[in-house]
Write a structure and sequence with these properties.
It is a single chain. The chain has 325 residues and is an alpha/beta fold. The chain has 2 domains: 3-187, Rossmann fold (3-Layer(aba) Sandwich), CATH 3.40.50.620; 207-324, TPP-binding domain (Rossmann fold), CATH 3.40.50. The protein has 9 helices and 16 strands. The chain has helices spanning 17-33, 50-55, 74-88, 99-112, 222-230, 239-243, 274-280, 296-300, 309-324, and strands spanning 3-7, 10-11, 14-15, 36-42, 60-64, 92-97, 116-124, 129-135, 140-146, 152-157, 173-176, 207-211, 234-237, 264-268, 286-290, 303-306. The strands form 3 sheets. It has a 9-stranded mixed beta sheet with strand order 9-8-7-10-6-1-4-5-11. A 5-stranded parallel beta sheet has the order 13-12-14-15-16. Helix 3 crosses helix 4 and helix 5 packs parallel to helix 9 (309-324). The radius of gyration is 22 Å and the shape is elongated.
């Protein structure tokens, strides 16, 4: 029986939530192809993930070990995936539609000399392998067919589906997969990190309070910070804010920043340029606060408050505190 193989994204053994989205899609795709769901983990630090992957439907988890795989490196990870495809002959290979997932499958596709489709939202494998994928920063959905007789390589668009455990957990049987990696592949590898504070991040926060150029200054973000703190969320911003030096780039929501999917996104003084919309469009609900009723973010939001954010945001915070007593 053929398999849908999922490349597990992790950071020193901590699985990326997007991997579980890919596992959810893999189960649906495997049902259409009458295939099994399998996964490949890269590096010994990911060995403990087999059980969790079984909960999401993985019948087998192939573990790749090598001295080169001590930390993330796109060339080494891409070569592991290429060797896994040659050894296992899966029908489809899926990875996360994150920067890392797209980078790894691009490396693998080049080494295998096969097509690669990025940021897919829907798979229709019957007949020609047809997919719908996100293009032009989220402003276009393209329907394409993958014309290849071998394994199809694709990444699942981030936040295209909700991660859902399998109705019946699979075995998640851990098996070793032999890989032979040239030491030169370690020339591109993570060697250092700047650790962020513990807690929720832009990518995982249930509430994000975003500020744009309309906030006016770095100091004027204080009321947004208060609202985010009151709701257990975090503060984000637009690219204009980071360009002005008001917030760090790590706070940026958008195509060149972080893509978010909170329960609620408060967009304060943000016009809603396409680059920002790409990062925010997976939000379950958007509340726009803006003086311009024709701003793109206002027209796309589920709710809008037309007014001065410097008055509206503190008023919302005060009302929340009043109701909580």
């Amino acid at each position: 029986m053929s398999a849908v193989l999922v490349v597990v994204e992790h950071d020193r053994g901590a699985m990326a939530p997007a991997t579980l989205e890919a596992m959810t899609v893999a189960r649906s795709l495997a049902g259409q192809l009458d295939a099994t769901v399998e996964a490949v983990t890269i590096g010994a630090s990911a060995d403990e993930l087999a059980g969790q992957l079984g909960v999401y439907g993985a019948t087998r988890v192939h573990r790749a070990h090598d001295d080169v795989l001590g930390d993330y490196g796109p060339e080494a990870w891409g070569e592991v995936v290429a060797q896994a495809v040659r050894a296992l002959d899966p029908a489809v290979v899926l990875a996360t539609g994150t920067d890392r997932g797209n980078e790894v499958l691009a490396q693998a596709a080049a080494r295998l000399d096969v097509p690669f489709v990025a940021n897919v939202t829907d798979f229709r494998p019957n007949g020609s392998f047809e997919v719908t994928r996100v293009r032009w920063g989220g402003s276009l959905l393209e329907i394409a067919s993958v014309d290849d007789d071998g394994a199809r390589l694709a990444t699942v668009a981030h936040h295209a589906v909700d991660a859902v455990p399998a109705d019946d957990a699979a075995a998640g049987e851990a098996v070793a997969i032999d890989v032979d990696l040239d030491p030169s592949l370690a020339r591109t590898v993570v060697t250092d990190r700047v650790e962020r504070e513990a807690g929720v991040t832009l990518a995982t926060a249930p509430v994000v309070v975003g500020g744009g150029r309309g906030v006016g200054s770095a100091e004027a973000f204080a009321p947004l910070q208060e609202l985010a703190l009151e709701l257990g969320g975090v503060v984000g911003c637009s690219r204009a804010v980071t360009n002005n030096g008001w917030r760090n780039h790590t706070d940026q929501v958008g195509q060149t920043g972080t893509r978010i999917a909170p329960d609620v996104y408060f967009a304060c003084g943000i016009s809603g340029a396409i680059q920002h919309w790409v990062g925010a469009m997976a939000s379950k609900q958007i509340v726009a606060i803006n003086t311009d009723p024709q701003a793109n973010m206002v027209t796309r939001a589920g709710y809008a408050v037309i007014g001065d954010l410097h008055e509206v945001v503190p008023a919302i915070t005060a009302e929340i505190r009043r109701r909580r007593g």
